[in-house]
Write a structure and sequence with these properties.
Distance between the termini of chain A: 30 Å
CATH architecture of the largest domain in chain B: Orthogonal Bundle
Strand content of chain A: 5-15%
Number of helices of chain A: 13
CATH architecture of the largest domain in chain A: 3-Layer(aba) Sandwich
Distance between the termini of chain B: 37 Å
Shape of chain A: globular
CATH superfamily of the largest domain in chain B: Alpha-helical ferredoxin
CATH topology of the largest domain in chain B: Fumarate Reductase Iron-sulfur Protein, Chain B, domain 2
CATH topology of the largest domain in chain A: Rossmann fold
CATH class of the largest domain in chain A: Alpha Beta
Number of domains of chain A: 2
Structural class of chain A: alpha/beta
Largest interface: A-B, 52 and 57 residues
CATH class of the largest domain in chain B: Mainly Alpha
Helix content of chain A: 40-55%
Shape of chain B: globular
Largest sheet of chain A: 4 strands, parallel
Number of strands of chain A: 7
Order of helices and strands of chain B: HHHHHHHHHH
Helix content of chain B: 55-70%
Oligomer: heterodimer
Radius of gyration of chain A: 18 Å
Number of strands of chain B: 0
Strand order of the largest sheet of chain A: 2-1-3-4
Strand content of chain B: under 5%
Order of helices and strands of chain A: EHEHHEHEHEHHHEHHEHHH
Chain lengths: ~280, ~190
């Protein structure tokens, strides 16, 4: 099965391990990703803050390419996902946007990577590929904001309690912990401009994850990952707590459970030690 | 967060203009406060989201446009999701930021528009956002050499871990993205 793939700007840089692990695990599940030719930035959070027309145009340009190809689009980043869905809703409501001349008609679906893997591949296909069950791993799944909100745009069925990553991790036999902070904001968009506020939000997530009995946090968004992983040491110093909470992309753990040889290469890129925990459990 | 910077004197912006630009029907707000109760950053705001809507209704637009609230909002979309009257509050925040940016933003919050400008200039130039040069541009424009120095050790560690792509891609589509920017910029001037 072939699917269009819109990686977004982070997946070639700060989130390279997410991009590589997505390609690996979708390959194992029989999905062939075809990168959208000539894709460009969706505008992320800066365009909609600056100019509504710019936000629409930047996202629509990519939708038009995807529609020509006519396959569903897999989107790994929460911000890209919301921008593309938002542009889709605008076009479907009949709004005229220059980058899409004529009437908009489309049958393609835009899907976040976790939803795609859970809904399209499904539990049975995932379980069949598991070579190393992650029984001793106690993750909480952290979805962040923009894969689910606002639901009138994202079409999320349960925006306050999404389950795709929980279901995937359970299929890998992980001992997934429940917690109430799945969709609380990590302040990703404020990390450079108001770091003191973002660090406060992230610190709270760490405290709550540990209280829930988790030994790691699983994410499906390059900004959430970067916010929780890259700044963990600074946050620890700032509020005096000792954390060493590995922040895994759900696809890295799928790769681990599927027996991929590349896991070590992905985890080496994390700034917060992501390997010791897995070594202690004999998984790496 | 209280601001010590005095508000800048501006041409007044009417309540009607804000409502028209946002496209939101603010008169449906019955002050249930679900937006403010769900907001993760309300602790850092000088005007809570439900009060911000009330202030606009009362025509106190200067207070709103000079607030810290619109710059500490993280666009997490909780307010929009939970509003029982379907007011897209996150989009209202965008509208207020857009108006404020055109008029000039107070000094204490200037780093937010500086960040967005650095982000968008990277997209305009390369077609995709190039993280390393964007972060460097932001650090320099918001904090000068000191700003760059503050980010240096983290940047170095990310480089060592292979999380930084040193050079941007040169895209065939870069020109098309550049054209989109020019069209929007020209439209704003006319």
């Amino acid at each position: 099965m072939k699917v269009s793939y819109y990686p977004g700007c982070s997946l070639d840089g700060s989130a390279r391990e997410y991009g590589e692990s997505i390609k690996t695990v979708t390959g194992v599940l029989g999905i062939e990703l075809e990168e959208l030719p000539d894709w460009t930035c969706c505008g992320a959070s800066s365009a909609h803050v600056t100019n509504d027309g710019l936000a629409s145009a930047l996202a629509v340009r990519n939708l038009v390419i995807a529609n020509k190809i006519g396959r569903d689009v897999l989107v790994p980043c929460a911000a890209c996902y919301l921008r593309l869905k938002s542009a889709e809703k605008e076009l479907k409501s009949g709004k005229q946007i220059e980058e899409n001349p004529g009437k908009y008609s489309s049958n393609i679906h835009i899907k976040h990577s976790a939803d795609f893997i859970w809904e399209v591949c499904g539990e049975k296909a995932i379980r069949e590929k598991v070579q190393k069950p992650l029984e001793k791993l106690n993750p909480v799944c952290y979805y962040g904001c923009l894969t689910t909100r606002p639901p009138q745009i994202t079409d999320a069925k349960d925006p306050e309690d999404p389950k795709a990553m929980d279901n995937i991790l359970k299929s890998l036999e992980a001992n997934v912990k429940s917690w109430s902070y799945k969709t609380d904001c990590c302040g990703g968009s404020l990390m450079l401009t108001h770091p003191e506020l973002a660090k406060k939000l992230v610190g709270h997530l760490f405290d709550m994850a540990l209280e829930a009995g988790a030994n790691c946090i699983v994410v499906g968004c390059p900004m959430c990952q970067s916010n929780l992983d890259t700044r963990q040491k600074e946050i620890m110093q700032a509020n005096g707590n000792r954390y060493n909470v590995p922040i895994y992309y759900f696809t890295e753990l799928m790769g681990l459970a599927f027996g991929s040889m590349s896991v070590d290469k992905w985890l080496k890129k994390h700034l917060t030690d992501a390997k010791t925990l897995l070594k202690q459990q004999g998984l790496l | 967060m209280t601001s010590t910077t005095p508000a800048i004197a501006h041409e007044p912006v009417s309540r009607e203009k804000i409502i028209a630009l946002s496209g939101e029907i603010l008169s449906t707000c019955f002050q249930c406060q679900k937006c403010s109760n769900g907001c993760p950053l309300v602790f850092a705001m000088d005007i809570a989201p439900h009060r911000l809507i009330h202030s606009i209704q009362l025509g106190r637009t200067e207070e709103v446009l000079n607030s810290d609230t619109i710059w500490v909002c993280a666009s997490c979309e909780i307010c929009t999701t939970r509003c029982p009257n379907n007011i897209d509050i996150a989009h209202l925040m965008d509208t207020l930021r857009q108006i404020s940016m055109k008029r000039g933003v107070k000094e204490s919050q200037k780093r937010v528009p500086v960040f967005h400008a650095a982000f968008l200039s990277s997209v305009k130039r390369f077609g995709r956002m190039h993280e390393a040069s964007m972060a460097l541009t932001y650090a320099y424009r918001s904090g000068g050499i000191k700003g760059v120095r503050e980010q240096f050790s983290l940047g170095l560690e990310m480089l060592r871990k292979g999380k930084i792509r040193p050079l941007p891609d040169r895209l065939m589509a870069g020109k098309q993205v550049n054209d989109i920017f020019h069209k929007i910029e020209n439209g704003e001037q006319s």
